[in-house]
Target: TetR/AcrR family transcriptional regulator
Amino acid sequence: MTPSAKQRAAKKKPAKKAAPPRKAAEPAPAPRHAGAKARAPEATKQDIIDVATREFAQNGLSGARVDEIAAKTGSSKRMIYYYFGDKDGLYLAVLEEAYRKVRTTEAQLDLEHLRPTDALKKLVEFTFDHHHSNEAFIRLVMIENIHHGEYLARSKTIQDLNVSAIGELERVYQRGLQDGIFRKGLNAIELHWQISALAFFNVSNRATFSQIFRVDLTSKKAVASLRSQVVDMVLRNVLKHPG
Model:
């Protein structure tokens, strides 16, 4: 006896539905070296800023590549944009960090407990030493001048940091006036300009000067001599009766 159509249908089992394909997991950023542990967000951001500082200082805003920064930090372009918005945002973060470092260290000089002449001398020496040891900072400032200070103007952080630096110098100058050892007619912004100019030029133009005049201005002896002269020039300009 042949089975009826009803019996044949009862023996058939319903076909199972195919499971939806699994989505591939998004790859995590590659660690900087084998076995490296995942870094905290703040550590990652700082690492990106450190590498970006070197890239922007070396290649400028237009020449630096976010892909290169991502590769050197073991992160991704997407992650950099997540933290900083875009390339301009990263560049501005680099500028802010550069100024924050110099002003934070400068604020620890404890100038208020020194005599005005000693305080001014210490401030000039600090500025000279900082610039000499931080060529990337000098190059970043030069690059920002090429952009006519456009990015600095966007940053209230940098403006506030530099206002505090001028305030500290103004207090030193006023103490010197009260003690009768500094001459009248100066202001803190112009004095800051003079100190910065002398320390800045020592780094920004040392390569060209060394080549033009066939002298090594990067030697320890040359740097020590220039440092001493810069301090002497500033003090002679400010002292009421330079010795």
The domain at 88-238 is CATH 1.10.357.10 (Tetracycline Repressor; domain 2). The two ends are 130 Å apart (CA to CA). Residues 31 and 38 are 7 Å apart (CA to CA).
